[in-house]
């Protein structure tokens, strides 16, 4: 049965997509169904000339600027859609004219508003870049794209002078100055400067991960994350450093790497003035001032400044140690610990001191060592004011005030302020002497004793008496000697 034309909302100004057919059909104004009848509006076959559509039955020429149809046939019962009336402001403009319609049911009075929809249905992208061959459905998109090749950036930020190749990108950038975040999450209230970022954020709440890897089945919230992940399977590293030739899977990794050559640190802390090469590092650093620890452990309630720290911490509850050394089978909770451990096998010490040429296995060891040259002691005890070059030494020192001795010996029950003190004590029970002299095969339970012993072979005597200029190989012998000069040292 035919639908009631009036109940469907049809008027002479309304046109609707009615499906595909070999012939072209269109609806002529004034040929609509009578009110109250069950007849459909009349559709007539026609053909297109160079400048117009010719209705064979009505004998009317219809100019192409007001009507365009892509092989639309008479409607079937299933293809009959509810019509949409034009707003009052458009009725005079629409009166007495045919208005184009699309395959998807869109009704419009504007030629330009139809064009993208028609190209979507037809798969047509008629604007092609002469540089790379990429095609676009809109000429304006091609113009924007060409700026990638020419380097043109016509849109300038009035605040910082930075330039952009698209106006939309400038608008997003300006929000970094104004702090405007117009897109709010209805779930948690978090706000964003870009709509696209909000869309991705919402997937955290919904759990949606629409982008799936065909190799391993892993899914991702963003397509960009999938592309980066796929390179772990292919081994592709398309981004190369022009200075050292090092390659990277991700463009941002190359950008950050280049700053190791330039020394650029564009992200500055407003509280202490410290600068960073990465924004993420600045965000983490700022939490040392605010005390913010947004990542909480569901097992013990402990909180962390960095999400990665929480991931590593959770392994203390699960016992997971996924990173195994291929040389000795020792396992570690974090990959960084495995890398450092491997250097005990290879003997590699990539971090060298520019002052004394001493080398270290880790960058942290080098950083700590440099303080012996600069005299810097940034860690201060709040109880007595004593300062230390290492945070770990401050923690151990503070236990002298609190009386805390968290490391207990399982053999005798004796407790110690540090794990290193416990390890030194443990050899009393085991008789182990792991520190062997490379000159005479003599062994020691403590490394410090080995260091002093080796000076017998090397002849090194680093401790000098300022009174008689006599030198000694150990500090204990030096202090005993100084007692013979009581007047000079008083």
UniProtKB/TrEMBL annotation:
Gene Ontology biological-process annotations: positive regulation of DNA-templated transcription
Q: Where in or outside the cell is it found?
A: Nucleus
| SMART domains registered for this protein in UniProt | ZnF_C2H2 (SM00355)
Give Gene Ontology CC terms: chromosome; nucleus
Q: Which PROSITE patterns match?
A: ZINC_FINGER_C2H2_1, ZINC_FINGER_C2H2_2
Q: Does the keyword Transcription regulation apply?
A: yes
Domain named C2H2-type: residues? 127-154, 155-182, 183-210, 211-238, 239-266, 267-294, 295-322, 323-350, 351-378, 379-406, 407-434, 435-462, 463-490
Q: Name one GO molecular function term.
A: DNA-binding transcription factor activity, RNA polymerase II-specific
Q: Which UniProt keywords apply?
A: Metal-binding, Nucleus, Repeat, Transcription, Transcription regulation, Zinc, Zinc-finger
Its family?
Belongs to the krueppel C2H2-type zinc-finger protein family.
Q: What's this protein's name?
A: C2H2-type domain-containing protein
